[in-house]
Structure formats: structure tokens, C-alpha cells
Amino acid sequence: MNFQDELKKRTEEINKVIQSYLPEEEGFAKTMAQAMNYSILAGGKRLRPMLILETLRLFGGEEKLAYPFMAAMEMIHTHSLVHDDLPALDNDDYRRGRLTTHKVYGEAMGVLSGVALLNYAYEVMLTAFDTADTPDCQAHVIQALKVMSHKTGLYGMLGGQSVDVENDGKPMSREMIDYIYENKTSALIEASVMTGAILGGATEEETAIVEKAAKNIGLAFQIQDDILDVTSTEEELGKPIHSDEKNHKTTYVTLMGIEKASQQVKKLSDEAVTLFEGLNKKNEFLFTLVNELVGRRK
């Protein structure tokens, strides 16, 4: 398997799925729809919807059942980026190599379109019931909706974001940084693999194992992000570098240095792959994808 070729192919397939669920740019609310689509279509790795699909494949589920959740997950993730970039938070002008949503459509529309993406994600997920034609499938959709809701809100991504904002520029302990990373970043990755597993028919025990693996993936991903903010270039990342330093943020790099932070990324990624492999199910692409997070440059 040529991983990069497969990655490109699968990303293109996921983009087609996402585009099929985007709102129409028409009517009095046309500008909001345009702002929503602008942020979604800016590109990105599509890591979270990819994890939904590949985990579902790991358990041999019906792929079409995952499509609404894949599109919705990217909407939820993109909403968080749109709001992260706002002047009240990180105040960034560029994301994924082009102007941020609020720089193009204004701050008010940046706020509103971000909220609209979050709400629209739930509208899209509920369409999964249209193809859930058996009691088991319907039960899986309900359970996946519960996971997505929980991991997105107060006890997940938004909770982590709130603690991050509240302590912006303040010295933080390792415990608080872990809380922020485990919620702001890991929660959506956990939701992704858990949703894929649930829709694929995994048992509760198997779902708990992939949740633990995803927690490691999310932590590794965020620590690598800290490292790249120091070591990468703006051209590679597609967004400003040294933003953590600019915003006086405490990160794994400021706490332990680049070398030890890199070792932690490797350790967490290895543990995640070991957990996946322990399920005795095969998905070579998924295992390689997790390992590739260690060496990413963007």
C-alpha cells in the first residue's frame, strides 16, 4: 500500500461526502450559507471524518450510515476553528492558507456562521435515520448521536475551549494543560473513532478500547501541533507560526522542551496503535494513519 496515494484518494472521497451535505447558498440567509461553505471548503486534513470511516471499516459496518456523521464532524470541527480565529480568541488572519472567515465576512458573520455550522451538524446527523432501516441500525445511530453530543459540549470540546480561554496567558500546570488537550482536541477524535465503532457494530468493550486509543491520538496530535508552532514555517502550516508564544500560552513545548515533547508524541502514538492492534481486526491504512501523525509537518 502506498500510504500517500491512499490518503489523497480517501481525502477526495471524503470531500465529496462533505460537499453533498453543504447548505444551498440561496435566499435571505445566503451570506451565512456562503460563510459556512467558505470555511468548510478551505481544505484541511479531514482527519476526523476519516477516522469515523476507517474505524467503521475496521468493524465491517455499512459505510453509507457513516456519511452524515462524517460531514457533521467536519462541520463541528470547522465551527471550532472559525471561532478560534475570532478577535476575541486567537485573533488569527489566516487558516489553511487563506484568510479566516471573519476577515472575509466580518466578525459578526464569523460568530453566526460558526454557530450555524454547529447547529447544522446536528440536522445532518439526524438524516442518518433515513438509511437506518433496522432496529439495530437505529439503536447504533442513537448511541452515536449521544457520543457526538457529549464529546462536543461542556464535557468535551467546548469545555476544554472554555478553560483554555479562561487561562489564556496565565501559567498552567501539566494537569490543566492535559485537561484542555483531552477535551479541546482529543474529545472530537474520541467521538470520531467511537462513532465509527458504534456504527460498525462494535461491542461496548471494543468501543471503550478505541476511545482510549483515540485519547492518546488526540494528545499526540495536539502536542505535535505545539511542536510545529515552533519548528514549522507559515507556508507549511498554512497559518501563522509562533502564535502560542505571541499569546503567552503554556504548552508541552514550554513545559518540557521540543525533544521530550516529541518523545511523548511517539509514546502516545505507539500506545494507540497497540490498542487498535489488540482488537485483532485489520485496517492497515488506519494503523499507518495514526503513526503518520507523529511525523506530520502541517
- The Cα radius of gyration reads 18 Å
- CATH-level-4 superfamily name: Farnesyl Diphosphate Synthase
Helix content: over 70%
Q: Report the portion of residues in β strands.
A: under 5%
Number of strands: 2
Number of domains: 1
SSE order, one letter for each helix or strand? HHHHEEHHHHHHHHHH
The CA-CA distance between the termini, in Å, is 22 Å
Reported for the largest beta sheet, the result is: 2 strands, antiparallel
What is the CATH architecture annotation? Answer: Orthogonal Bundle
CATH topology-level fold name: Farnesyl Diphosphate Synthase
Could you say which structural class the secondary elements and strand pairing correspond to?
A: mainly alpha
Low-confidence stretches: none
**Strand neighbour order, sheet with most strands:** 1-2
Shape, please? globular
